[in-house]
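Example 3.2
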Amino acid sequence: MKKQFLTAFSVFAFTAAAHGQQAPLKIGVVADMSGMYSDMTGTGSVEAVKLAVQDFGGKLNGRSIEVVSADHQNKGDIASSLVRKWFDADGVDVVVNAAGSAVALAVVAIAKNANKTALITGAVTDRLSNEACTPNSVHYGIDNHALVVGTVDALLAQGKKKFFFIVADYAFGHSFLAQARPYIEAHGGQVVGSVRHPLNSADMSSFLLQAQASGADVIALANAGSDTINSVSQAGEFGMTQGKQSVAAMVMFLTDVHSLGLEKSQGLLLTTPSYWNLNDETRAFSQRFNKVVGRMPTFYQQADYSATLAYLKAAEKVGTQDGAKVVAEMKGKPINDGFAQGGMIREDGLLVHDVYLARVKKPSESKAPWDYYDIVAKIPGDKAFRQLDKSECPLVKK
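Structure, written as tokens:
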């Protein structure tokens, strides 16, 4: 079978060459298209990538650009199988998004082995720029460290010292708590307890009641997507959002707020790497996205657009789709666009850029559809992200 495939492929390649054709550059968007992360990534991520291709001009050094997509169903083994087939058999050159930390960690290893490129825009585990960094991958969005710094600093400044964490039981949740605990303790706070919950939990009541009984000042939600929505909604039903304890969503998306409504989510503090209404560039991209998708983009979808455009510019300059060479070209270049401000990809593959502390508006404060955030503060990238000399990435020169 393998021999037959290679023969068929050789015939195709010979035929294409004979007609002066080049195979298209293929961009694969692997994301959650139907599950708990589909609102924040999903088909919106595909459309964001297509907008980047459109803005680039639709061709790369004479080659047409094709966007393909697949649903990884939030399963690392399915994502691995899809991406491996894309790279080995389907001619895909670069993968974008890879929502979910377990998926992302699997994808970067496959990209390295195939010498392709992985643009991780849909995961926040800091392992991607530490022990799991590769010369073929970029962590393009935000990581656990930056999320901790923004929200925890704001809560500590309010005099809230005791934290109880409700943690999603997978790579993201585990690494988030591992980041948060030492940071909180180093800044005068205390983690008084934590509990893990299964991914995609409909009933969060037992976990919330444990947090309530702990006496913590802050019930910190280290989860995402529908798990965060369910947690905030059920905390409101228990009256927890109106009491002395604060409920803090450590990772929250615009679509989460939209699903909950401002009545339930008002007052929540969150850290975000971008926001559709932040400046002229974010608004320009987001209005175009809205015309196609019917809503404003999440920061993952903004990152999908930005990362794809940065990749295409680098690939055009180096004149090859050699993954390691393209990623090397992407590093060290300034990025200021519809996602990132003050951005630059470091040698550990992490995009460092300004991030923002936001507060969810009251219903009476929202003046237009999707007008959900007040930006409370800008956190410079060099403060939000871990310093490079603390990176455990083997690519970093010591």
